[in-house]
Amino acid sequence: MKGTAFALLLSVAALNTGPAATAGARDQSLAAATKRLAQLDRRARAQQDERDIENLQRMYGYYLDRAEWDQLADLFASDGTIEFAQRGVYVGKAHIRKFLDLLGPKGPRAGHVDDHLQLQIVVHVAPDGRTARLRARELTMGGDLGGRNHLSEGTYENGLVKQQGVWKLKSVHYYTNLNTDYDKGFGKDAQPIETASTVFPPDQPPTERYQAYPKAHIPPFHYPNPVTGRPVQYEGDYR
Question: 142 exposed, middle or buried (CB, 10 Å; 0-12, 13-18, 19+)?
């Protein structure tokens, strides 16, 4: 990208200093170069935004792995939301932080594993560069030495906002697709989806009612088919 911009500037300079250059030609070449440089700048900014957002999602996963609840909550905007499975929606950073305690004690524990792989990340940044949408898949392996262990898989559909030049999580929505006993496997076991806590109830009910495996629920896509431009739709009973 930088090489292209530099070559463009050199070509404009050569045209403007040539013996045959006229005021009109100089003006036209300068206008074309300015337009092209603006396009390159937008592309570079968009690519950097995508990288920053992908890194943010991966950092979220690392904090989730080791139950670093304070660090994880700090990734959210002050008015952010979080929604896991059928647990409902928690609004605001303070409630998000308190919700995380429902997932388990803060910090790593000896003999305990809880890893969350962030995979298949797809990012779309809005034209104004201020908001973005993200879809990702999470594969989780968790449990205790000598105890019950589980394998789960789900999909994120997240919203992000850029505030003072920094990308933050605006809304995190995790859809549980599958949760099974690790030893039995999903061929023999399917655990029910998580529901709302009675200890710390959510601020809002779930935005969508669905069931996990063995039901074949498909979390909605925030983007259309990139080739046809049409919304992604599925036939049959998948809820």
Answer: middle
Three-point CA angle 51, 121, 89, nearest 5°:
105
8 A C-beta contact, residue 117 and residue 61: yes
CATH class for the domain made up of 2-181: alpha beta
Enumerate the domain spans of the chain.
Answer: 2-181
pLDDT in tens, 98-145: 999 999 999 999 999 999 999 999 999 999 999 999 999 999 999 999
The bridge status of strand 112-125 relative to strand 149-163 is unpaired
Residue 171: name the closest of 93, 101, 71 by CA.
93
Q: How far apart are CA 58 and CA 121, in angstroms?
A: 9
Query: Strands 89-91, 112-125: parallel, antiparallel or unpaired by DSSP?
Result: unpaired
Please tell me the pTM assigned to this model: 0.85
Are 193 and 88 in contact by the 8 Å Cβ rule? The answer is: no
166 φψ region: left (φ > 0), alpha (ψ -120 to 50), beta (else): beta
Q: What is the pLDDT of residues 27-84, one digit of tens each?
A: 788 888 888 888 888 888 899 999 999 999 999 999 999 999 999 999 999 999 999 9
